[in-house]
TrEMBL record:
Function of the protein: Catalyzes the condensation of carbamoyl phosphate and aspartate to form carbamoyl aspartate and inorganic phosphate, the committed step in the de novo pyrimidine nucleotide biosynthesis pathway.
Aspartate/ornithine carbamoyltransferase carbamoyl-P binding domain location: 8-150
Superkingdom assignment: Bacteria
Subunit structure: Heterododecamer (2C3:3R2) of six catalytic PyrB chains organized as two trimers (C3), and six regulatory PyrI chains organized as three dimers (R2).
UniProt gene name: pyrB
Native source organism of the sequence: Aquimarina aggregata
Pathway listed: Pyrimidine metabolism; UMP biosynthesis via de novo pathway; (S)-dihydroorotate from bicarbonate: step 2/3
EC number(s) recorded for this UniProt protein: 2.1.3.2
Domain Aspartate/ornithine carbamoyltransferase Asp/Orn-binding: 156-302
Family per similarity comment: Belongs to the aspartate/ornithine carbamoyltransferase superfamily. ATCase family.
Protein name (database record): Aspartate carbamoyltransferase
Stretch forming the signal peptide: none
Amino acid sequence: MSELSVNHLLGIKYLKEQDINLIFETADHFKEVINRPIKKVPSLRDITIANLFFENSTRTRLSFELAEKRLSADVINFSAASSSVKKGETLIDTVNNILSMKVDMVVMRHPNPGAGVFLSKHVNASIVNAGDGAHEHPTQALLDSYSIRERLGEVKGKKVVIVGDILHSRVALSNIFALKLQGAEVKVCGPKTLIPKYIEKLGVQVETNLKKALNWCDIANMLRVQNERMEISYFPSTREYTQQFGVNKEILNSLDKEIVIMHPGPINRGVEITSDVADSDQAIILDQVQNGVAVRMAVIYLLASKIKQ
Ligand code: CP
């Protein structure tokens, strides 16, 4: 397979396993490029990309911008807080105004699930979903699987537990789709109130005992509790959440084996993960961030190749 089966990256659920393999092979090449003294290639000199962020971001926004610049694309950045969206402009009007400036690709983060799919049907540009509400965050799942492959050789056959607020997490859903597509086994672990009822239909098992989940897995992906998406309390207190679902050195040392710890960020230190774990050699959190640039370069490069045809 030499090209993606899709024209947009809207979610992992639209990809085939071969798409993921192609993205990873391309990312391997770009990872080598960004470790050279001159970290740039001229591949996308004729492409203009708009990064539209309607929701806060540190890692994803900077990682996409760097990936685009490493590929020599022209880049414009938009943040909702300082835009005319505040004056009542619709999403389609905002994006069409930006596209009239001859933009080829839109990378968008939006609080509403499905915003990227909606946009792809109404505007003439390649759309990359950089996180849409509690729905999907496809490039995060790709960089997570790429980091597992880098640390453990392959994703197929690996046992991954995703711990925390599964209900509000786009990272969890995209990771489940990506991991299952590549032949990994997946469990989720967290308070019952933060695990969606449909989860087992995705071929995922539920384990509410953290120690059992950690003893089963090769990799634990620790998620933050997304208080900003909660209108009610889903557990009695943060202290009790940490006691039951927080990972610390003591629990890791009590396991039969050494597991790999992941976290998509931002971390709430001392809540879902202690600092001594987050900063240990067992954790690949900063590798995930570093790999994000190469993986996003691969996604943008492969989608841009389809625009150019
Ligand atoms: N992992 C992630 O999406 O982080 P940001 O919200 O900082 O982009």
